[in-house]
Amino acid sequence: MRHAEFEDPRLVQVYDAECPWGPDDDFFLTVVGETPAARVLDLGCGTGRLLTALVGDRRYTEVVGTDVSSHALTLAARRLRLDRLPERQRNRISLWQSALTYRDDRLRGYDAAVLMEVIEHLDPPRLPALEDVVFGHARPGTVVVTTPNAEYNVRYDGLPAGRFRHADHRFEWTRAEFTAWAERVAGTYGYRLRLAGVGDEDPELGSPTQLAVLTIDVPDPGHREPQVPPRQEERP
Ligand SMILES: C[S@@+](CC[C@H](N)C(=O)[O-])C[C@H]1O[C@@H](n2cnc3c(N)ncnc32)[C@H](O)[C@@H]1O
C-alpha cells in the first residue's frame, strides 16, 4: 500500500532508523544559516530529524514542522520532547498537519522553508499543486528543495536497474530533469535559482542528492542570496 510507511507508526520508526542525520541536513543548515532567516518551515518534516537542529539554534525565533501524516508528527513531537520543554522554548515550535497540495494560510510570511526528500513522494500530476502552495501562496523568502539524483542509483549495490531507492517514491529525477523543474518553478514564481549536489560526487553521475535553493526575487536589501557551492560541471 502506498504511503503505508507514513500512516503506520511502526513503519515510521523504521524510516527513522533508516534515515539518520546526513549531509543534506548539514548543507541545509549551512544554506539557511547564510540567510537572515528567523522564521523557518520544515515542509514534510517527517519525524523531525531536521527540526531538532533548527530548534537548537537560537537564531530561529520560530520553527514550524508540517506533514500530511499525523503519525509522523506524533513522533516528531516525541523527539522534540515538546511536553517537557519550558514554555518559552515550546512557544518557538509548532507542528501542523498540512497537505502540501492544498493552500494553507498558516504557511505564509516565513523567511525560509525546506522540502527535504519530499517532492518525490507526490504523484507527478500533483506537483503543480505543491508548486502553487509553496511558491505561489506561502512564498517563503528562501526555499531549499532536495531530491535523489536518479543517475547515481547505479552506485547502490542491490538496487536493481530502473528501481527507485524507496518504495514510496513516485519518481526519481536525473539532474537534467530536476534542473528543468527547478528552472521552470523559479521562472514562474519569481525566484532566483542555485543548484548543487550533496554528498560524495561521482565525476560522471553527480552526487547522490540534488539540491536547489530558490530565493525570492524581490527588492529587499536585507535578503542576501545564499552562497551555495556550484555543481562540479559549473566550476571553472
Ligand atoms: C522521506 S520523508 C522526509 C521527511 C523529512 N523531510 C526528512 O528529510 O527526514 C517524506 C515526508 O513527506 C511527507 N509527505 C508526503 N506527501 C506529502 C504531502 N502531500 N503533504 C505533506 N507532506 C507529505 C510524508 O508524510 C513524509 O513524512
Automatic annotation (TrEMBL):
Pfam families: Methyltransf_12 (PF08242). Residues 41-143 form the Methyltransferase type domain. PANTHER family: HEN1, SMALL RNA 2'-O-METHYLTRANSFERASE. Gene3D superfamilies: Vaccinia Virus protein VP39. One of its GO terms (molecular function) is methyltransferase activity. InterPro entries: Hen1, Methyltransf_12, SAM-dependent_MTases_sf. It catalyses: small RNA 3'-end nucleotide + S-adenosyl-L-methionine = small RNA 3'-end 2'-O-methylnucleotide + S-adenosyl-L-homocysteine + H(+). This is Small RNA 2'-O-methyltransferase. The keyword Signal does not apply. Belongs to the methyltransferase superfamily. HEN1 family. Its EC number is 2.1.1.386.
